[in-house]
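Q: I'm building a small set of examples for a reading group on sequence design. Run inverse folding on the following structure and report the sequence directly after it, with nothing in between.
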């Protein structure tokens, strides 16, 4: 095979690789970011080993050091965040619960039984993904409201504590000022007492 042909094949392979990288970066950025499974392109309930393998494969593909795509850093960050979430037992459990809730909501809305044949169709799978988005958004909004309320309560508590500290400081400063002027007050009282005694002596008249 001629060198020109080898160079052409190599160029095509390189172009195909870059296309795959760009496609994966685009897919990650378009994935629903509250659903870590969707970001990693995994099915819910997969074992931890699958999460590790999938993350390694995709992180190597789109790593910012290995592509000129300007969106690679953002996609890589989302991929890393999704992997971290799924490797955290509590976060993954919350996500699994939201996905299960979405499925049950659809079943109830349609008044189906849990063994309804349509549950296995692609159409239901698509509806399930959309309902999962709805549930995750609701959960996130609820979480943010709770966090806001918590921060407001903490702010009120902090303000109360600051006012109490300021009140104690004012009281302490007042007591210190009172103590510092004690000698002056005692001296003034003594001078007043002495002045009163002199006046009494002047008023006294000799007998006879």
């Amino acid at each position: 095979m001629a060198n020109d042909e080898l160079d052409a094949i190599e160029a095509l392979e390189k172009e195909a690789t870059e296309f795959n990288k760009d496609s994966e970066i685009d897919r990650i950025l378009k994935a629903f970011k509250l659903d870590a499974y969707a970001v990693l392109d995994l099915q819910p309930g997969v074992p931890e080993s699958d999460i590790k393998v999938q993350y390694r494969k995709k992180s190597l593909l789109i790593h910012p050091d290995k592509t000129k795509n300007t969106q690679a850093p953002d996609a890589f960050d989302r991929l890393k965040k999704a992997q971290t979430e799924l490797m955290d037992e509590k976060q993954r459990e919350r996500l699994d619960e939201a996905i299960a809730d979405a499925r049950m909501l659809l079943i109830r809305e349609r008044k189906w039984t849990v063994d309804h044949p349509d549950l296995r169709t692609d159409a239901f799978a698509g509806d399930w993904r959309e309902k999962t988005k709805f549930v995750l958004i609701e959960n996130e909004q609820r979480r943010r409201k709770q966090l806001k309320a918590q921060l407001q309560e903490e702010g009120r508590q902090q303000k109360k504590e600051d006012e109490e500290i300021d009140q104690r400081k004012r009281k302490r400063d007042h007591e210190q000022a009172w103590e510092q002027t004690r000698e002056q007050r005692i001296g003034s009282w003594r001078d007043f007492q002495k002045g009163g005694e002199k006046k009494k002596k002047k008023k006294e008249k000799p007998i006879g």
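The CA atoms of residues 86 and 92 lie 5 Å apart.
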